[in-house]
Write a structure and sequence with these properties.
Low-confidence stretches: 1-16, 36-59
Radius of gyration: 22 Å
Strand content: over 45%
Number of domains: 1
CATH class: Mainly Beta
Mean pLDDT: 82
Order of helices and strands: HEEEEEEEHEEE
Helix content: 10-25%
CATH topology: Porin
Number of helices: 2
Length: 253
């Protein structure tokens, strides 16, 4: 796993622990999702006397109409959260909040490799205020914001009438605006505040999601992410989370 560097040896050790905890959290979440999906998948009642199987097609939890996952497109929109560090040497992190929009094209065919693969394009906008060094120009927490665009793939792992468990990997760039609140500060003095200059740098999101079906076409999604960024001199690791609604469109042949 890529190393997160912060000030001092203690900071480096703490950063590594944070990254490891993030990965373990995502993996643990995936296992819990898998367990839930497996348990809910037992949606049939077998009778030893009649030797017949009665499918459970509706309940107060699951949708009445069968969820077939044969949709061609999928649109996801929701609220997004991630933590971040707005300067190379700032000792404290900040929280960013905003929205996410993801469009996915699910590959057609019955081949084991392609039938559960979706190609996605992801856009996120996040904003928040950050702590800075004590300085003569900014007395409060300045506002920073970021546009993030990524492309990648989703893999639909387990699925049934009630839930679906997915994994995803997206990569692209983030355009960070760090001088929104420091427009009047001469560029020569920006390092005294501790913020990055405005820049576009590589970013990636690795994680999973669980979809709770409301109907054949709609579901509620919760998705944790391990965020990788390279705004400074090395790649750093952060944690993200989003939640929102999925709408499925079209039908694959």
């Amino acid at each position: 796993m890529l190393r997160l560097k912060t000030i001092g040896e203690a900071g480096t050790a703490g950063a590594r622990k944070t990254g490891n905890r993030a990965v373990k959290g995502i993996l643990a979440g995936g296992l819990l999702m898998a367990g839930a999906a497996h348990g809910l998948a037992q949606g049939t009642v077998s009778s030893s006397q009649t030797q017949t199987t009665v499918p459970i097609t509706s309940s107060k939890i699951g949708p009445a109409a069968p969820v077939t996952y044969d949709n061609k497109y999928e649109i996801y929109g929701g609220l997004n959260f991630m933590n971040f560090q707005a300067g190379q040497n700032l000792p404290n992190r900040m929280n960013l909040g905003g929205g996410e929009l993801l469009g996915t094209y699910w590959l057609p065919g019955d081949h084991w490799f392609t039938k559960n693969i979706g190609l996605g394009a992801d856009y996120r906008f996040d904003a928040g205020t950050t702590p800075v060094f004590a300085n003569a120009f900014v007395n409060n927490r300045p506002l920073v914001y970021m546009h993030i665009g990524m492309v990648g793939a989703q893999y639909r792992w387990l699925k049934n009438q009630y839930v679906a468990v997915n994994f995803h990997g997206f990569g692209g760039v983030g355009a960070g605006t760090f001088t929104y609140s420091t427009k009047d500060v001469p560029p020569l003095y920006l390092p005294t505040i501790g913020l990055y200059t405005n820049r576009v740098k590589p970013m990636a999101a690795l994680g999973g999601s669980i979809d709770f079906n409301l109907s054949k076409k709609m579901a509620i999604r919760f998705s944790p992410d391990l965020i990788l960024e390279h705004f400074g001199t090395e790649t750093r690791e952060f944690v993200g989370m989003s939640g929102g609604v999925i709408y499925r469109i079209g039908k694959n042949k």
